[in-house]
Specification:
alpha+beta; five-stranded antiparallel sheet; SCO1664 family protein; CHP03843; 318 residues; three-stranded antiparallel sheet
């Protein structure tokens, strides 16, 4: 089916379109662990593609309250906006054909990727299968290993942001994550690009306590921006940070991150709009935990390191 038209500049905002538009289901992601539906949405003659994750389709998790993943996805968007980095596609909580759920704007794949809308039964959720990602401007992908990334690990969304390389050094423009077994008796070094966009995502993940930052959750857009998707397992009170973006662990936070975190701390103050909005989506303890993580990052001035109390890297990593 043809891709829906983009939202023209100066028309309704993406959030308004997602909130008020008529939602039509076009297909389902069969590989997703929860119900993920590819949809189109229309409002005041504007149309776009989007992803709809109904609460009714969420599978229970032992460490997160039932029926809360959609709200956590929306909370991740709100925090991303407060940081000023726009790392999460516009996301709202609303009623849909299968009840309340998260609705997120579809982001078209970056240049060099297949940007066509998916077929009905193979629809991609917010770009879960992704496309080719623009890596660090001056850093070619390491040539000694096999690229990883995307939902299938075969060069999807993170193909130029994540890689497996031979040897013990990541190479110029890359950061080491750790060793991964690629076949019986053989390991390779898993690396990610030393990319400012990824570094911002690493800061966001530390704030929202993301328990599942995989390569397939990295979505490069056509305009060179990088988005993170699939934020259902976030905001737990317990430390559950699990990510592929450990390359900066222990390093000093960039000045822009310190500035953004300082603004976020003010936005989280009691009575501030963001604090009120998060209070609608999360428990009071979870909102307090966000404040605590922001305060800890500002106090240390450094990227966090794995705690050792929780697996540091998601599996499978892509």
């Amino acid at each position: 089916m043809p891709a829906p038209e983009r939202i023209p500049a100066g028309s309704v905002t993406p959030v308004e379109l997602l909130t008020r538009g008529e939602l039509t289901v076009r297909g389902q992601i069969r590989e997703a662990s929860n119900a993920v539906l590819y949809c189109t949405i229309a409002y005041e003659e504007q149309t776009a593609a989007c992803v709809y994750k109904p609460v009714a389709g969420e599978r229970p998790l032992w460490d997160f309250p039932d029926g809360t993943l959609a709200r956590r996805e929306v909370a991740a968007y709100e925090v991303s906006e407060a940081l000023g980095w726009g790392l999460v596609p516009p996301t709202v909580l609303r009623d849909g054909p299968y009840g309340e759920g998260m609705v997120q704007l579809w982001i078209e794949a970056g240049d060099g990727a297949d940007a066509a809308a998916p077929e009905a039964d193979d629809a991609a959720a917010g770009g879960t299968d992704g496309g080719a990602a623009p890596g660090t401007d001056d850093a070619p992908a390491p040539g000694a290993g096999d690229g990883v990334g995307g939902a299938d690990g075969d060069g999807g969304a993170g193909a130029e942001l994540l890689a497996l390389v031979e040897g013990d050094e990541p190479g110029d423009g890359w950061k080491a994550i750790g060793y991964a077994q690629v076949e019986e008796g053989r390991t390779a070094l898993l690396v990610h690009a030393d990319d400012a966009r990824l570094r911002r995502l690493a800061v966001l993940d530390a704030v929202i306590n993301n328990a599942d930052r995989k390569g397939g959750h990295l979505l490069p857009g056509r305009d060179g921006r990088l988005f993170g998707i699939d934020h259902g397992v976030t905001f737990n009170v317990a430390d559950k940070l699990r990510t592929l973006l450990w390359g900066w662990a222990g390093e000093k936070l960039p000045d822009e991150a310190v500035t953004a975190l300082g603004a976020l701390r003010e936005a989280l103050a009691a009575g501030a709009p963001l604090a009120g909005r998060l209070g609608e989506l999360l428990t009071p303890a979870e909102v307090d935990a966000v404040r605590g993580r922001v305060a800890a990052l500002l106090a240390s001035g450094r990227h966090p390191a794995p705690s050792g109390e929780w697996p540091a890297i998601p599996w499978p990593p892509v």
